[in-house]
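**Sequence, structure tokens**
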Amino acid sequence: MHRIKLSFLRLIDGWAGPDQERQSLDLQVDWVRVAPFILVHLGCLAIIWTGWSPVAVSACAAMYLVRIFAITGFYHRYFSHRAFQTSRFVQFALAVVANSSAQRGPLWWAAHHRHHHRHSDTAEDLHSPSQSSIWHSHVGWIVCRGNFRTQKKLVKDFLRYPELVFLDRFDYLVPLITAVAMYGLGSWLADVAPEFGTSGLQMLVWGFLISTVAVFHATAAINSLAHLVGTRRYDTHDDSRNNWMLALVTLGEGWHNNHHRFPGRAKQGIFWWEIDITYFVLRQMERLGLIWQLNGPFVFKEPSS
């Protein structure tokens, strides 16, 4: 009963309860905390009743592209690998956008990813398909009770920002606000532009639920498929592979073998034909002065154990 109460409490505050740095050996599914994840997936079935409209599908595509860029460009290349520098404002703003994808907070995401690189495809890797199964590497690991905690010792460089700590602790707030905003947008459009043929529920389903599920599975495919299917240019100490199809749907993350060979590089597509849209957008942000030292002299050193 205490464990169930703690699970409900951690739905609200992800840092609640005993501060255990590592609980990854607990592979039991925490059904209380996984319930929102399941409901988001089941909610996509509402398209049977809401139907579709061009404006709703366009909103879905826009939300997918914006949020997967925030995941790949900032949760991954910035928060996890510090491949460039930016201001505190931009750091927080893009963390909020990425957090709206319901992939937990920036500190949790970065800590797990740094752990992955330190133990890639070994028994210590939390989502290696070679160590468990493709199902576990894709989604199973994320629903285990032992993997919900943020490993703070791996993200000490970001713990000094209270706004990031808040975002990490209360990681449900931004996705909830995003869902409400999409419903509100659809309801407003139904009133002012009925010719668009949308509604609050339809915009919620397409603009938030479907796009959120799509962003999650595209991201998760890098953990699973990008360690199973593709080519290996570099003989890294893991099973990472380059996969052009995954690179397209994730805006460049599919050049995974390249990334494991050069994890600190902001550019993952090394040759000209390796399309890396995330890096292209980061270059434009650099030109605008929003980020700097993109692949520059700044080198992030992972914290020691």
